[in-house]
Amino acid sequence: RTPLHLRLAEVKQVVSLATAVLREAKQKVSVVIWTDGVPDKRKAFEKALRELMRYPVSVTVRLCTSDEEVIEYYSELDSEVSAPLEVLDDLRSEAIEVSHCNPWLTYAPPLHMVRELGVVHPLIDALDERKLRVGEMKEFIELLLGSPAPLPEPLE
C-alpha cells in the first residue's frame, strides 16, 4: 500500500505557507519521493502531483524496484507531466540511458546521488533525454567541476 496522494497533500500544505517567500527569493522546494510501488489511488496521486506543481517545487521520484508495472507507470507519468518532474531508476539503468544519449560521459555514483537528492539543472535533466550540444557539454563540465573561471571554448 502506497498512499502517496496523502503525503503530497501534506507537502503542498507546508509549501503553500512559504510560497510568497520562495517566489520572492526565486527558490524552489525539492520534493524527493522514494517508492517501490504505484500509488494505491493513482488518479488522486496524479491530481495531488499536478496541484503541488503549481507551487515553486521540483519533484524527483526515485524508483526502488525492478517491477516493470511500476517503472512503466512512472515513465508514462514523466512523459505526461512536464518539468519539474524527474523519474529516476537505479544507477545501472540510469547509466545505460545516459550512455545512449551521451556516450562521452561516465555516469558515476556521485552524479546519480546528485540527481537522487533532487538537484535540478536543465543540463542534468537532459543527460538521459538527448545528446548534449558541444557548448552544453562544456557548460556541464564547468558545472560538474565547479570551475571558478570559464573553460576555453571547445572546437566543434
UniProtKB/TrEMBL annotation:
Q: Where on the tree of life does the source sit, at the highest rank?
A: Eukaryota
Protein name in UniProt: VWA domain-containing protein
